[in-house]
């Protein structure tokens, strides 16, 4: 095992991050655009100084944003990108030219927003309302940092939902919706149709809509009705655009894609899984919509360079060999199912061991139920997040699902859990076992950190 290494935030960044968290836990939102709209207005609406693309959906948002941003950079544009949550440091949430801003830039953005945030906090308090939330403040910081850079285009990932999400302060040129499934029901609704209705809020008459093929017809119906209602131009997967072919390979896959304006052959995507091919398709179509007039294809060599260079940390990411350790956020049942399919397609493990930790607001039983057929055994642990389900409680849920106590190992210490999973994968000298880490972004991030996986440049 590599020696665990933990990179820590500077005292200044830690203080600012703590101040942001005191506003509201990240998983708590206030469904109202009044505060973010007001703070951006006081700041002079910096988000209107560049073009933007907004991305919503249940799974695939972050990777789609990363692929799209990489294509736009290869096309010569200066880019901003927001993604969430972060893996190691909050600075990862705000990237310029594909690189997270440094701590100095993050602190400066916080200070730039602070006087206006305090004004909005006071105005809201007078009306009996809450202050700016954690995510609202970070969104304002992102838009300000992009204007200060300045960037040509911002690729903006929604935090939760769409209609009331703070990223709604932008009026995007292109709106992308990835596959929709059940997640965050406490805020978005109990049915697929209700959740799709919230996410469809990013679709406007001004923005070209790029829509993934939906696993649920109810979601497809809601999106179709929204497109008609606002009169937006739309490109829908398996209708106007599509993945024509894909061939899994070492370290990625070969793709042929049909975009809005052209057909693109022999593209190597440096990411695993059919879902990543779908994410690449959405990114290509969004780039076509932003860069062209709908009839001019992208340069094929530009696409080949960009797609071969894409990374998406914590998303079906191999972080160690012998045994293979694969990290994936997989924090909802749909994500877990995608992970299972990806592992089965790309790996031939003689023994597959899970390392699983899940947050309290997630459907732990259903996630474990999806993972169970893939796993010979599972090590149950927890991240350091205060929202993590305790190891003993999650282990009890796992024992009920795995129906064999010998298949479930409980290890509260995450370093010890990693070692236990590796030992199980290498039982009897097996050199072809694998460890699959899944259940939450925070777990994937901490395992990544403990294994000493380097940060991106």
Uncertain stretches of 5 or more adjacent residues:
1-7
**Number of helices, counting only DSSP H or I runs of 4 residues or more:** 15
- The backbone outline, from C-alpha atoms, is globular
**What class do helices, strands and sheet pairing give?**
alpha/beta
End-to-end separation in angstroms reads 24 Å
What is the residue-mean pLDDT, rounded to a whole number?
91
- The helix content is 40-55%
- Round the Cα radius of gyration to an integer and report it: 22 Å
Largest sheet: 8 strands, mixed
List the helices and strands and how they pair.
Elements lengths: L10 H13 L10 H9 L8 E6 L4 H14 L4 E4 L11 E3 L2 E2 L2 H24 L7 H15 L4 E5 L16 E4 L7 H4 L3 H8 L8 E4 L5 H14 L3 E3 L5 E8 L2 E7 L4 E7 L4 H18 L8 H9 L8 E4 L3 E4 L5 H14 L4 E6 L7 H8 L5 E4 L10 H12 L5 E3 L3 H12 L7 E6 L2 H10 L7
Parallel strand pairs: 1-5, 1-6, 2-5, 6-7, 7-8, 13-17, 14-15, 14-17, 15-16
Antiparallel strand pairs: 2-3, 3-4, 9-10, 10-11, 12-13
């Amino acid at each position: 095992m590599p020696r665990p290494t933990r990179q820590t935030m500077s005292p200044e960044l830690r203080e600012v991050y703590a101040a942001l968290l005191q506003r509201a836990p990240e998983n708590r939102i206030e469904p109202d655009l009044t505060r973010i709209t007001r703070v951006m207005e006081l700041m002079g609406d910096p988000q209107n100084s560049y073009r933007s693309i907004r991305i919503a959906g249940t799974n695939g948002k972050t990777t789609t944003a990363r692929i799209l941003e990489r294509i736009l950079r290869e096309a010569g544009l200066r880019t901003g990108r927001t993604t969430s949550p972060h893996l190691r440091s909050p600075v990862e949430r705000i990237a310029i030219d594909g690189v997270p801003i440094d701590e100095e830039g993050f602190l400066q953005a916080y200070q730039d927003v602070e006087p206006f945030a305090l004004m909005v906090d006071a105005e809201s308090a007078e009306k009996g309302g809450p202050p700016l939330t954690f995510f609202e403040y970070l969104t304002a910081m992102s838009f300000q940092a992009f204007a200060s850079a300045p960037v040509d285009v911002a690729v903006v990932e929604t935090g939760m939902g769409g209609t009331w999400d703070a990223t709604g302060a932008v009026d995007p040129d292109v709106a992308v919706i990835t596959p929709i499934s059940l997640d965050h029901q406490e805020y978005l609704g109990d049915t697929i149709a209700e959740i799709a209705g919230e996410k469809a809020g990013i679709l406007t008459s001004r923005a070209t809509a790029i829509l993934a093929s939906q696993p649920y017809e109810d979601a497809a119906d809601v999106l179709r009705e929204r497109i008609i209602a606002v009169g937006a131009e739309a490109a829908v997967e398996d209708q106007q655009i599509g993945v024509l072919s894909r061939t899994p390979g070492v370290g990625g896959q070969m793709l042929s894609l049909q975009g809005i304006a052209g057909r693109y052959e022999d593209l190597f995507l440096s990411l695993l899984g059919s879902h990543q091919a779908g994410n690449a398709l959405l990114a290509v179509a969004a780039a076509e919509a932003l860069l062209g007039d709908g009839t001019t294809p992208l340069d094929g060599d530009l696409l080949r360079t960009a797609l071969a260079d894409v990374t998406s940390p914590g998303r079906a990411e191999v972080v160690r060999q012998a045994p293979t350790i694969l990290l994936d956020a997989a924090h909802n049942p749909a994500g877990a199912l995608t992970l299972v399919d990806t592992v089965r397609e790309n790996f031939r493990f003689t023994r597959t061991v899970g390392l699983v930790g899940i947050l309290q607001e997630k459907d732990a039983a259903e996630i474990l139920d999806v993972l169970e057929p893939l796993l010979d055994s599972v090590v149950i642990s927890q991240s350091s997040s205060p929202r993590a389900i305790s190891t003993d409680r999650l282990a009890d849920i796992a024992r009920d699902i795995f129906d064999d106590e010998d298949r479930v190992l409980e290890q509260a210490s995450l370093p010890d859990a990693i070692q236990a999973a590796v030992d199980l994968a290498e039982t009897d000298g097996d050199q072809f076992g694998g460890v699959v880490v899944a259940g939450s972004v925070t777990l994937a991030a901490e395992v990544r950190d403990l294994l000493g996986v380097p940060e991106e440049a």
